[in-house]
Design a protein that fits this description.
The N terminus is likely disordered. Helix content is 34%, strand content 16%.
Length: 279
Amino acid sequence: MKKILYITCLLACWTLCCAPVMAQVNNGANATNVKKQAKVRIQTPMGDIVVRLYDETPLHRDNFLKLVREGFYDGTLFHRVIKDFMIQGGDPASKDAPADKLLGGGGPGYEIAAEIKDGMYHKRGALAAARQGDNVNPERKSSGSQFYIVYGQVFNDEELKLFEQQQRKKKVQEAFHQLAEEHRSEIAQLRRDRNAAGLERLQSRLAEEAEKNVPLTGLSDEQKRIYSTIGGTPHLDGQYTVFGEVVEGLDVVEKIQTVATGTANRPQEDIKMKMTIIE
């Protein structure tokens, strides 16, 4: 129960986003002659992490490889770390950043079209792209450079069931607010007329319609298996692009996600990275 409540709180306050300084993706980041199942080594003071990039997300794969080849990530920090959740990096402004500098708003000057795929879940070790929130980024475009690696938690059956209930409740609330927006003029007129009974009837009708519009389906059997054995952050599924996974060095991710942090979840001691493509 505590785990689910913790995750729910994080969902409410954590954006995995960059400041609104990104430009439209130029789609010019594609690399040529990319080898299948490309791998990248991320060197850190706490050890090396090797990630495999998915061919099913070619825009993100090719962009990541392009930036690695250019040395874009070298000297940048894992600037945001949340225990039992994730480690985030890729902000060019983090290079040699003073300890009091607020990080998380930098990038290469473009975004990448979302490649959110069924079956690519936020399991422990997943490599995913950070982005701005839905309120300013409804198309869920990814940051051109910022990424995060999932650590998350392992959930039992009761916690997963509660999570599904909370997620459906959230979707029903979203559906209700959308319906209310569509009936805004009608609601305004009822308020002007001080028609409390009419407002109550409309609210009941919209609430019933919202319930019908949201399916009862929850996590798939595969998701339940993953989150009850491997672990991860299920509430991010379908929200962010997962474009790779850790194949070596998950123990390094574990160590990084436990370090002491300060303002904005920045590690108190800098964790620099250097990346190389594994040929």
